[in-house]
Amino acid sequence: MKKLLYNRPLFIITSILVLIGLTLQVAEYIDLPIIIIPSSLLYLIWLFVLMKNKNK
């Protein structure tokens, strides 16, 4: 799990996908809040875990 959590390319790809999804949702090109909201929440949790572990 730690190897997956600290995988930088995966984090960058996930960041780009979440930002693209949120941008498309705001621009009303897609209407998939069922997918975008959970992915955004998981991304934020991942971000906070990384920030918490970096401070240790």
At a glance:
With 56 residues, this protein is mainly alpha-helical. The chain has three helices and no strands.
Oligomer: single chain
Low-confidence stretches: none
Q: What would you call the shape?
A: elongated
**Average pLDDT, all residues:** 76
Number of helices: 3
Largest sheet: none
| Total beta strand runs | 0
Order of helices and strands: HHH
Rg, rounded, reads 13 Å
Structural class: mainly alpha
Taken as a percent bin, the fraction of beta residues is under 5%
Percent of residues in helical segments?
Answer: over 70%
Distance from first to last alpha carbon: 18 Å
Q: Would you give an account of this structure?
A:
The chain is built from three helices and no strands. The chain has 56 residues and is an all-alpha fold.
Sum up the structure in keywords:
82% helix
Layout of secondary structure:
Layout lengths: L1 H4 L2 H19 L6 H23 L1
Helix pairs in contact: 2-3
